[in-house]
Design a protein that fits this description.
- The complex is a heterodimer of chains A (140) and B (312).
- With 140 residues, chain A is mostly beta strands.
- Chain A is built from 2 helices and 8 strands.
- In chain A, a hairpin with a 2-residue loop joins strand 4 and strand 5.
- Chain B has 2 domains: 147 residues, Aspartate/ornithine carbamoyltransferase (Rossmann fold), CATH 3.40.50; 155 residues, 3-Layer(aba) Sandwich (Rossmann fold).
- Classes of the chains: A mainly beta (140), B alpha/beta (312).
- Chains A and B meet through loops of A and helix 4 of B.
Chain lengths: 140, 312
């Protein structure tokens, strides 16, 4: 499969196979005017399979959001056809407005205009707790 | 410069761990001094105002704060339930606190939603004391408990405390355990039915702090070793079916009979209100300390108010 190289853009590489669409959705890449390509199950030297996202524009990225979904991702910034920067992402200590608290007893369920804030309490198990009510975040 | 434009960045107390061990020791010393020398403090808060903002009713805590401020010579304003406040008009906690903080010198707030005091502290021009947020934190109850143990046992180090009843949902239990983990030689005996055991994350915290703990299902098995017995209410609504509740309820009721193997100098504590988990016959036992505990609550709140106002 041949996807054209980028002149000025961003490549999100080494995405764990299967997580590419989640990153696409969370970064709202469907709202962009530029060309975006998602490659699923590409061959990876390191891990066998990986997903890749190529964005044909130098947009601002929410690195915390990327790292939360998949901290294996590497971000290549391309200018004039060359990789000018390679970034790895780290699981953030704090998440702001990336995930929402599901605890109905939390103040965030009723108070308007406050940020959803979570703190990383267990990096190994990737456990985040709500800054307000201390409830452990669960996707369900 | 317009004085009304000056912004303040006050210190608030949301959780017991917002206070260091040294600060808690200082508050206990102040409370003891107030008890011994009340006249020295009767005008110290003259012209100061405490706002008691209780978005859900709590008569004892509110009266305790009110009495505390009045004994310091200060004034009290506020509301005792949400229906008395602009919350009925849909005003946010942030706006309510912001405005009240322009009228008062310090705020004590109780709210049914967890995390509300944290929101309040971010929008207040004056210190906010969390007087209880849902089932989350209640730091002044923990301070009350610490003052009680300190006065009755002489120290917060080297004793064995048994927590009995609802250890899963009991916020006062979790908070007191967190506070006591910071002292030396405290052994924790956790007495509860399997349905209401202390949550795993609390045990992990105790392990990380090197705290010694042991679980029991029967109160009688732990009783002989206790220096402090902290009773809590087992609530019916915490059980999936009534039969389990009825079966277990009586196991965690304290009676004079159950006290027979207890140490003569053990103290019995309860955050109150008690329903039937401590039989009334126990009230006359010299070890019953729950009313003494409630009395301590007033003095430790006085100490905290003075500390946050920068007066002591």
């Amino acid at each position: 499969m041949n996807i054209d190289g980028l002149t000025n853009g961003i490549v999100l590489d080494h995405i764990t196979a299967g997580k590419g669409m989640r990153i696409y959705e969370m970064l709202k890449l469907d709202k962009l005017d530029c060309t975006v390509a998602i490659i699923q199950n590409a061959t990876s030297n390191k891990k066998g399979r990986k997903d890749i996202i190529k964005i044909d524009s130098l947009i601002d990225l929410n690195y915390d959001m990327i790292a939360y979904v998949d901290s294996n991702v590497t971000v290549d910034i391309i200018k004039n056809g060359k990789v000018v920067e390679k970034r790895s992402v780290n699981l953030p200590e704090t998440l702001t407005n990336i995930i929402s608290c599901h605890n109905p007893r939390c103040i965030t369920s009723t108070e308007q205009g406050i940020d959803q804030i979570f703190h990383l309490v267990d990096p190994e198990r990737r456990i985040y707790r709500c800054a307000y009510c201390d409830t452990e975040y669960s996707e369900k | 410069m317009d004085k009304l434009e000056v912004k303040h960045n006050p210190r608030s107390i949301i959780n017991i761990t917002d206070l260091t061990v040294e600060e808690i020791d200082h508050l206990i010393k102040t409370a003891n001094d107030i008890i011994e020398n009340p006249v020295n403090y009767q005008d110290i808060c003259a012209h100061k105002k405490l706002a008691t903002l209780f978005f859900e009713p709590s008569t004892r805590t509110r009266l305790s704060f009110t009495a505390a401020m009045m004994e310091l010579g200060g004034n009290v304003l506020g509301f005792s339930e949400a229906s008395s406040s602009s919350a009925t008009k849909g005003e946010s906690v942030a706006d309510t606190i912001h405005i009240v903080s322009l009228y008062a010198d310090i705020i004590a707030m109780r709210h049914p939603k967890e995390g509300a005091p944290l929101v309040a502290s971010a929008h207040s021009e004056v210190p906010v004391i969390n007087a209880g947020d849902g089932g989350h934190f209640h730091p002044t109850q923990t301070l009350t408990d610490l003052l009680t143990i300190s006065r009755k046992k002489g120290s917060l180090n080297n004793f064995t405390i048994g927590f009995c009843g609802d250890l899963k949902f009991g916020r006062t239990v979790h908070s007191l355990i967190e506070a006591l983990m910071r002292y030396k030689g405290v052994k924790f005996l956790l007495i509860a039915p399997p349905e209401l055991r202390l949550p795993k994350y609390m045990k992990e915290k105790m392990n990380a702090a090197g705290a010694e703990w042991q679980e029991f299902e029967k109160l009688e098995d732990a009783m002989p070793d206790l220096d402090v017995l902290y009773m809590t209410r087992v609530q019916k609504e915490r059980f999936f079916n009534e039969e389990d509740y009825v079966r277990l309820r009586d196991s965690y009721i304290l009676t004079l009979e159950k006290l027979k193997p207890a140490k003569k100098d053990m103290i019995i504590m309860h955050p109150l209100p008690r329903v039937n988990e401590i039989a009334v016959e126990v009230d006359n036992d010299p070890r019953a300390s729950y009313f003494y505990q409630a009395h301590c609550g007033k003095y430790i709140r006085e100490a905290l108010i003075l500390y946050l106002l920068g007066l002591k």
